[in-house]
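Discussion board: Methods & Data

I've been asked by a reviewer to show the raw model output for two of the constructs in my manuscript, not just the figures. I'm not sure how much to include, so I'm pasting the format here to get opinions. Each protein appears as its amino acid sequence followed by a line of discrete structure tokens. Is this the kind of thing reviewers expect to see in a supplement, or should I convert it first? Here is construct A:
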Amino acid sequence: MCDYCGCLANDFIATLSDEHVAIGLAARDLALAAESGVATAIRSTAQALVGLLAPHTQREEGVLFPELAAAGAAAHTAELEADHAALDTAFIAIAMGEEGALDGLPAALERLRAHIWREDHDVFPAAVQLLDSAAWVRVADHDHVDHDHADPDHAEPHHAAA
């Protein structure tokens, strides 16, 4: 988590960063479950991770990334969205117990780690600098609407597994 630029003073960014911590802990739990080899533990921890990723991804892609793209960072947001799709696919496959899916876990965990680091240390600080006050009002308004309509018991991953 970034602690050098002041971006965590922004409530929206602080929420995303807090979610990154929870996602990182869930990823650690999945790695430990995979080491145990207990299929039910692997599936349940993967399901918990997917449950954290889904609303987080929706918040980034539906609220923050459009504003960043409009501010000239579309290439960067496209790369981050590609990460989201790949990570969703990998973790959903593990959660569903698909044969061979666990083979991709080390690469998926590393991609997740690098993705979170990039957002925390590059994207979020840049967002605070790039977005003007009107953009942050739109972010806050849109995020408020999303939370009002969210049903955490029925969260669906943003990117469906094929």
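Construct B, same format:
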Amino acid sequence: MAARPTIRLTIPGTLEYRAVAVRVVAEACRMVSAPGVERTADGNAYDLRHPFDAEFVSAFAEIFNNIAIHAYQRRAAVDGGEVDIAIAVGAGELDVEIRDHGKPFDIDAVSTPDLDSLPEGGMGIHIARALLDEVIYEPGPPNLWRLHKQLSPPPPPPPPPPRAPPRSPFSRETCRSSFSEPIRVTSRRSASPAPSTS
């Protein structure tokens, strides 16, 4: 990770501790999506109103589930497996590195799920890839996940409505009001035709 302030957390790699990790990641997301704005959550829930926060937290939770269920095979509590998390908050971006000492796997062998059949499992990596800008996995030990997401810029404001063209100072209304009487144009005609010189 780049030289940015880093939040570090080490917790047991079990589903019971997932909420702790998710809460920390949710707060880091808030630091990207609403820097300097303090938001309070209702009760025990975290604030995921901003799409950036909701997407990153959902992807992170899926990866944490995969570590607890597949890498540690639900034995982290017995075997003492831990998850090390490093979170780097940047201006408009968030990077999270997750390390575990569980069973590695080949991420390239994970197929895209058939969404028409609505499978009950096997969606975690697909969801993370769909929600984040970058998902990198390096098998270990330790296994290393790198998650990255850039905050999308807000949409540009709509263009202003077209303005009426400026009124000419020589418009018909202006000319009429400038003169109290109509202007008469006369031409000089000679009374008799000019003599011919032949």
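Answer (T.O., handling editor elsewhere):
This is acceptable in a supplement if you add a one-line summary per construct. For B, something like: Residues 51-71 form the longest helix (21 residues).
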